[in-house]
Amino acid sequence: MPPRRCTPTDGRALQHVGCGLLVLDRFIDFEADVGATPEDSSREAAWRNGDLINRTLATLSPGDTLHFPNKTFYAMGGISASGLTNVTIDLSGTIVFSDDVDAWPKRPEGGVTDCLSFSNLTGVVFTSSSGQGVLDGQGFTRRGGACLGSAT
After folding, report:
1. Where are the alpha helices (DSSP H) in 14-72?
2. How far apart are CA 38 and CA 71, in angstroms?
3. Parallel, antiparallel or unpaired: strands 20-23 and 14-17
4. What's the pLDDT tens digit per position in 45-97?
5. What are the residues whose beta carbons fall under 8 Å from the beta carbon of 37, sequence distance 6 or more?
6. How do 116-119 and 79-82 pair as beta strands?
7. Range list of H helices, the chain
8. How far apart are CA 50 and CA 42, in angstroms?
9. Among candidates 89, 132, 108, 104, which has minimal Cα distance to 46?
10. CA distance 113 to 144
11. What is the CA radius of gyration of the chain?
12. CA angle 115-38-136, nearest 5°?
């Protein structure tokens, strides 16, 4: 009987261990694996990249690494994640938040959302494997938002 083939359905690497499978941690490259667009400052790219960041953060499981390569990614504000546990966010490139705050997502009570907001984090590591990671809020201080919102 030929050996069974196992195909991961969520991007994780599988390794045979005895009679079972061991699920290994994922390394997710924001450009190559997620399809983000670097070096494009258009409003459309900023919206798309921001949406991709939010969607990718929502899929992270313990042991995963989300890697932003050493390129510039433009994004809209409103990046948020809650409940991340034991993940690594490797910002080796640059995220530039759009200065077009009129286009940003709005808060229900008025004003624009923060650039970034994280809550209920456990064992989350923010790092830069290149040593050159940058979050560029472009001096964002107007209209009731902050570049970095809560981080708890």
Report:
1. 43-57
2. 6
3. antiparallel
4. 999 999 999 999 999 999 999 999 999 999 998 999 999 999 999 999 999 99
5. 31, 45, 48, 49, 73
6. parallel
7. 43-57
8. 12
9. 104
10. 8
11. 18
12. 30
Please enumerate in sequence order all residues whose Cβ is within 8 A of that of 81, keeping only pairs 6 or more positions apart, or say none.
Answer: 54, 57, 58, 60, 117, 118, 119
Classify burial at 12, counting beta carbons within 10 Å of its beta carbon; exposed 0-12, middle 13-18, buried 19 or more.
middle
β-pairing verdict for 88-91 and 65-68: parallel
| pLDDT score for 106 | 85
Which amino acid is present at 47? W
Q: Residue 30 in contact with residue 16, Cβ under 8 Å?
A: no
Give the whole-angstrom CA distance, residue 87 versus residue 65: 6
pTM of structure = 0.80
Instruction: Give the pLDDT of residue 23.
Output: 59
What are the φ and ψ backbone dihedral angles of 135, each rounded to 5 degrees? -105, 115
Token pair in block for residue 68: 């932003």
Instruction: Look at the block and give the residue holding tokens 């983000």.
Output: 36
CA distances from 100 to 12, 45, 64 (A): 37, 13, 32
